């Protein structure tokens, strides 16, 4: 009896093992028949935006180099680097005692020239007119005396010597009148003395303007409102013309200057919108607009310079900050898309995907459109709702049986 029970138990385990072997074989055969599990994603309709990513720096369209027009010693610098200044605000003061003295000297010369001109108008001309009238009266009297003397000499009452004296007196009177008349002429507005005095006044006034200009050069001011982004001078320094003392970034348009790969040049156009972020504040994105495309390509880097206008720059944006820019070069709404990882040979003549149809992997040639973040537009070859292999599987070939396993939707 015990031997019988032992044999029965052994047979039960044998039967169980055989049953398990049959089940395992059936399970394996079923899996072999239906193929391996493969990750798939749905082809669906979605919005897609194609962007060109580039990096660059913040830049103002214009920078003003501040320098001195004269040689001098820096007396004071009433502003600091990074400070916002208004147009005409003083930035640097040079020592100006010599320039101030030159202005005072020029002012004295102007006053002297004006006094000389006034003297001619108020004194010299009236005196000359009076002298001319006196000379005319003297000449009239002398002419009468000469006439009487000549008449007396003709009658024999006076000798030749008296007539000669009368002639000399007449000549002197005529000469005095001519001198007085010349003095009147030179003292009038169009006379030589007046012209000389007027010219001297003009020269003195010109010298005063030069002296005042040189004095003005000792006060270096901001030509326009802006922000001082560099300072290369300290009080006590001796500065000379041509040396950059400060750099001013004028208030106005802020631009981003980036470099894009020349392969993307055909897709970037003026007016396209972009999102930018500074490396210092990566979470704070702001908008920009493509405003300039450099007509030449950098042969060393194979890149093209692009400038973008920032209409409303954030207050934390600084000159020369490093920025990253995503330029929207194309946009589609509710278009058919597939994961980028599912499309093979995307840059070739015939891109293709592996699509699951009736439980089998099918190689399908597709026509692609624009590419966005992780997805690509499908123009032909697929329909919405179809499943495509979302990754490259070396073990799956065209016609193989597969069991699709859905992945998360396209983002």
TrEMBL record:
Residues 64-244 form the Multidrug resistance protein MdtA-like barrel-sandwich hybrid domain. InterPro entries: Beta-barrel_RND_2, MdtA-like_BSH, MdtA-like_C, RND_pump_MFP. Residues 256-327 form the CusB-like beta-barrel domain. Keywords: Membrane, Transmembrane, Transmembrane helix, Transport. It is found in: Cell envelope. NCBIfam families: RND_mfp. Residues 336-389 form the Multidrug resistance protein MdtA-like C-terminal permuted SH3 domain. It comes from Actimicrobium antarcticum. This is Efflux RND transporter periplasmic adaptor subunit. Belongs to the membrane fusion protein (MFP) (TC 8.A.1) family. Its main location: other. The chain crosses the membrane at residues 12-33.
């Amino acid at each position: 009896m015990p031997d019988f029970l032992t044999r029965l138990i052994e047979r039960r385990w044998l039967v169980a093992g055989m049953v398990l072997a049959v089940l395992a074989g059936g399970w394996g055969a079923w899996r072999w028949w239906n193929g391996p599990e493969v990750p798939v994603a749905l082809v669906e309709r979605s919005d897609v935006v194609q962007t060109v990513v580039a990096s660059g720096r913040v830049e103002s369209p214009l920078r003003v180099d501040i320098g001195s027009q004269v040689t001098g010693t820096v007396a004071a610098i009433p502003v600091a680097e990074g400070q916002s200044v208004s147009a005409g605000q003083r930035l640097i003061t040079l020592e100006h005692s010599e320039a101030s003295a030159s202005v005072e000297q020029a002012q004295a010369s102007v006053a002297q020239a004006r006094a000389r001109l006034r003297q001619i108008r108020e004194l010299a001309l009236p005196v000359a007119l009076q002298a001319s009238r006196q000379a005319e009266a003297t000449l009239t009297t002398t002419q009468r005396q000469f006439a009487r003397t000549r008449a007396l000499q003709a009658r024999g009452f006076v000798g030749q010597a008296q007539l000669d004296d009368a002639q000399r007196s007449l000549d002197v009177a005529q000469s005095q009148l001519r001198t007085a008349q010349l003095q009147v002429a030179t003292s009038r507005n169009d006379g030589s003395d007046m012209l000389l005095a007027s010219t001297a006044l003009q020269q003195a006034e010109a010298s005063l303007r030069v002296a005042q200009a040189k004095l003005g050069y000792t006060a270096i001011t901001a030509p326009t409102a802006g922000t001082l982004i560099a300072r290369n001078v300290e009080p006590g320094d001796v500065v000379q013309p041509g040396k950059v003392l400060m750099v001013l970034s004028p208030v106005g348009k802020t631009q981003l200057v980036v470099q894009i790969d020349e392969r993307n040049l055909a897709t970037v156009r003026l007016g396209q919108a972009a999102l930018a972020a500074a490396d210092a504040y990566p979470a704070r994105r702001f908008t920009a607009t493509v405003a300039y495309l450099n007509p030449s390509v950098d042969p060393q880097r194979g890149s093209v310079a692009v400038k973008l206008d920032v209409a409303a720059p954030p207050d934390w944006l600084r000159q020369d900050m490093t920025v990253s820019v995503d330029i929207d070069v194309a946009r589609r709404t509710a278009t058919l898309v597939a994961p980028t990882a599912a499309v093979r040979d995307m840059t070739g003549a015939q891109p293709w995907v592996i699509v699951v149809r009736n439980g089998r992997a099918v190689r399908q040639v597709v026509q692609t459109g624009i590419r966005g973040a992780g997805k690509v537009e499908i123009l032909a070859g697929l329909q919405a709702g179809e499943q495509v292999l979302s990754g490259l599987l070396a073990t799956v070939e065209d016609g193989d049986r597969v069991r699709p396993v859905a992945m998360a939707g396209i983002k």
